[in-house]
Write a structure and sequence with these properties.
By secondary structure, the chain is an alpha+beta fold. It has one domain: TT1751-like domain (TATA-Binding Protein). 39% of the residues lie in helices and 20% in strands. α5 runs antiparallel to α7.
Length: 175
C-alpha cells in the first residue's frame, strides 16, 4: 500500500432560515422535536450484541422526526459576551446513526459530515435563525451514487423536520 491522499471538492450550500419566533421558543421546540441521544440505551444494545433490527427499532422509538442530538454547545452567549458580543447561539450535531450506516458501508470517511452540524441563533430583528448546510452537497462529493442518495434522503428528512417546526423549507433542499 502506497501513501498519498485524495481530494474531494464540493460547493457548500448554507441554508440560513429566518424564523418568526424568539430564539428561546424556537430552541425549545427544536429540542423537543430532536431529542438527545441516549448513550446508555444504545450502549446496552452494543453490550448484548443486539441485532441491527433492534438498533433500527430503538431509533424509530427515540427519534420521532428521524434525528437525535448527539452534542450541543449550549448557549455560546455567556462566553461571547466577554468579547462584547450579545447574540444567543447554540451549535448542534444532529443525526441518525442508522442513516449514517447506509453511507458508512460504502466509505467510513462520510463520518466527517455525519452527524449534521446545525446552528440556532438570534436574528438581527429578534427572531431566531436555523442554519444548516444542505446534506447532499458534502455527501455527493464522495462520488458514490448510494452515498449521494442518502444525502438527498437526509435533505428530505430535514425538510420534514422544518415543516413539523412550522419553518420555511428552502427550495431544492434535497437536490
Amino acid at each position: 500500500m502506497g501513501q498519498g491522499y485524495a481530494e474531494r471538492a464540493y460547493q457548500a450550500r448554507c441554508l440560513d432560515i429566518s424564523i418568526d419566533r424568539p430564539f428561546e421558543e424556537f430552541r425549545r421546540q427544536y429540542e423537543q422535536a430532536v431529542p438527545p441521544y441516549d448513550a446508555e440505551a444504545f450502549n446496552a444494545l452494543v453490550a448484548r450484541d443486539a441485532p441491527w433490527e433492534d438498533v433500527l427499532a430503538l431509533m424509530r422509538e427515540r427519534a420521532p422526526h428521524d434525528f437525535l442530538i448527539y452534542w450541543s454547545s449550549g448557549d455560546l452567549r455567556p462566553m461571547m459576551t466577554l468579547a462584547g458580543d450579545s447574540w444567543h447561539c447554540v451549535e448542534y450535531l444532529m443525526g441518525n446513526h442508522t442513516t449514517a450506516e447506509r453511507m458508512f458501508r460504502h466509505d467510513p470517511a462520510v463520518m466527517l459530515y455525519a452527524p449534521l452540524r446545525t446552528v440556532i441563533c438570534e436574528g438581527p430583528h429578534g427572531g431566531a435563525r436555523f442554519v444548516i448546510e444542505q446534506p447532499s452537497r458534502p455527501f455527493g462529493s464522495f462520488g458514490v451514487d448510494a452515498i449521494l442518495e442518502v444525502g438527498r434522503d437526509l435533505g428530505r428528512e430535514v425538510a420534514a423536520l422544518l415543516r413539523h417546526l412550522r419553518v420555511p423549507v428552502p427550495d431544492g433542499l434535497s437536490d
